[in-house]
Amino acid sequence: MIVCNLWRFQTRSRADKNLMAMMFLALTSCIADPFSYTMKGLPGMLPKVAVYATSTWLFAANMLAVYFWVRFLSLYLNGGMRRSSRIALNVVVLVGLVLLVINLFVPIVFYIDDNNLYTRSYLYAFYLAVDYMLVINSLVIYFKAKAKGGVLKFFPIWVYIVPIFIGGIVQSLFYGISVIPTSIAVSIAGVLASLQNEMIYHDQLTGLFNRSYMHYLLKKYTKRPKFNITGIMIDLNGFKHINDEFGHSVGDDALVISGRILKSAVGDAGCVIRYAGDEFIVLLNTQDDEVVEKCIAKIRRHFERFNIEKKEPYVLSVSIGAHKFNVKTESEDAFINVVDSRMYEDKKAFYATHAGMDRRKR
Fold first, then answer.
1. Cα angle vertex 268, ends 144, 156, to 5°?
2. Taking the model in full, what pTM does it have?
3. Which of 247, 233, 244, 253 is nearest to 357 (CA)?
4. Burial class (CB in 10 A: 0-12, 13-18, 19+), 104
């Protein structure tokens, strides 16, 4: 799995990086587990050190694998995680790691007796609770995203959850049987298979969904008209200038960063799609004017924040147009044409206030 997915390291997607971290943790755990089993009961200091080291790593790796899963799901579905949630998650995991360090001197999680046999201690339940808490947290993230995104949000979460739950229950009930590392590996395999099926719907450069996925969603939406969808078209102002001034590789970076900004701004309220070139479409699962305006304002704020904090040699600004999709009265093409024309109205207004900008740089 790792060899076939090394390309994910070449992307700038934080979700992919968390997924790769899960895979490496699962790999090392699946190696450490049988090694630890082999060393148990053997006489001498070296086997004892090996059992302590591998057992400590297994506790840490299992917890960290689920930690990276929560981060992956938050990034994949929502484009990020709230600061308060991120801090709480980091604190819980940090406490778990500190306890494992303490356990090397005081047996509070597990201990190795004189016969080099492993025995659980009273804080073993803490790690079981943390692992399940993180898994449940991922379920909350998923269902909240699905509730806000409606038909726009889908992820086969059960292919990950079910093996983890079964493995945790089996390992807890049958002392001496260790199946959590392999359960995590099976879960990751399921997630990768699902993501592989989605590759045809992803833009290769930005990692966002592509126009094919937009057509799929809108077709799906027409069959379920109870859902309300608003389209927001976003176009980068002066993108040609970035390409001409700094080169196409920098222009590609600007597109990747713009996609990341949009995904962070939209969060779990909708779906971000790279429509064409430097044009993006956001599909929101609402037709509430207030919610739509707040989303547009948030998008503008996030781009403004980038320009204030930027480390890049260019400035990013956007023109935006929005339109509610009425499935009863208009086709998909008509919907796109309206939202596109409204975006161009905003673009005209932008250039009217930036009259000094060379038209060739637009």
1. 65
2. 0.67
3. 244
4. exposed
